Amino acid sequence: MIELLFLICAYLIGSVPTAVWVSKGVFGMDIREYGSGNAGATNTFRVLGPKAGTFVMVVDMLKGVIAVRLSYLLPYYQNSDHLTQLVNFQIGLGLAAVVGHIFPIWAGFKGGKGIATLFGLVLAIQPIVAVCCVGVFLMILFFTRYVSLSSIIASIAFPILILYIFNEPEVFYRIFAIAVALMVVLTHQKNIARLLTGNENKVPLFKNRRGFRRKP
């Protein structure tokens, strides 16, 4: 029962609609009415520029970190004999935060794709793997300016790192890594189609955006 309450709490943390609040509070517009219509860091980068996009990305990432850290409030999971249960519970908390980000109760259940929050989940559980993934993300972003492509490739790198480089022993975590890659690819189908046709928008890395373009 207490675990269920913690999962609900993690969902509520993930539901904090960072992009929506920043766009409305600072820029006087709803990010969901512009660009791709997505309330996440990628669309914030594209529409509002790197400063706003970076802030949204960091906060969304912290939602995943904080959700996972909730597990340390329960003494049961501090016993070294319960390491497998701890990792499984942490993944559950992180996923609850991701669901909250995608379907935020505070913003009409219309949020983002959850990539930054997923990264926060991984960062809290396995920091070295997370750093490797973000390295892949930044490298692809630097050379292409496509956040979507960077997210897809970094997500594919995640299970490769878990399965072959770090050889993670926890079966559930290995399954989770594969599921993350598949989920990111599936949720980016429109982006993949635009990439293939050359219509995907690039993000401005070194300048602010001054104009807003409403979504079609």
UniProtKB/TrEMBL annotation:
<keyword id="KW-0444">Lipid biosynthesis</keyword>
<dbReference type="InterPro" id="IPR003811">
    <property type="entry name" value="G3P_acylTferase_PlsY"/>
</dbReference>
<feature type="transmembrane region" description="Helical">
    <location>
        <begin position="52"/>
        <end position="74"/>
    </location>
</feature>
<keyword id="KW-0808">Transferase</keyword>
<dbReference type="GO" id="GO:0043772">
    <property type="term" value="F:acyl-phosphate glycerol-3-phosphate acyltransferase activity"/>
</dbReference>
<dbReference type="GO" id="GO:0008654">
    <property type="term" value="P:phospholipid biosynthetic process"/>
</dbReference>
<feature type="transmembrane region" description="Helical">
    <location>
        <begin position="171"/>
        <end position="187"/>
    </location>
</feature>
<keyword id="KW-1208">Phospholipid metabolism</keyword>
<comment type="similarity">
    <text>Belongs to the PlsY family.</text>
</comment>
<keyword id="KW-0472">Membrane</keyword>
<comment type="pathway">
    <text>Lipid metabolism; phospholipid metabolism.</text>
</comment>
<keyword id="KW-1003">Cell membrane</keyword>
<keyword id="KW-0012">Acyltransferase</keyword>
<keyword id="KW-0812">Transmembrane</keyword>
<keyword id="KW-0594">Phospholipid biosynthesis</keyword>
<dbReference type="Pfam" id="PF02660">
    <property type="entry name" value="G3P_acyltransf"/>
</dbReference>
<feature type="transmembrane region" description="Helical">
    <location>
        <begin position="146"/>
        <end position="165"/>
    </location>
</feature>
<feature type="transmembrane region" description="Helical">
    <location>
        <begin position="86"/>
        <end position="109"/>
    </location>
</feature>
<comment type="subunit">
    <text>Probably interacts with PlsX.</text>
</comment>
<dbReference type="GO" id="GO:0005886">
    <property type="term" value="C:plasma membrane"/>
</dbReference>
<keyword id="KW-1133">Transmembrane helix</keyword>
<keyword id="KW-0443">Lipid metabolism</keyword>
<comment type="function">
    <text>Catalyzes the transfer of an acyl group from acyl-phosphate (acyl-PO(4)) to glycerol-3-phosphate (G3P) to form lysophosphatidic acid (LPA). This enzyme utilizes acyl-phosphate as fatty acyl donor, but not acyl-CoA or acyl-ACP.</text>
</comment>
<protein>
    <recommendedName>
        <fullName>Glycerol-3-phosphate acyltransferase</fullName>
        <ecNumber>2.3.1.275</ecNumber>
    </recommendedName>
</protein>
<feature type="transmembrane region" description="Helical">
    <location>
        <begin position="115"/>
        <end position="139"/>
    </location>
</feature>
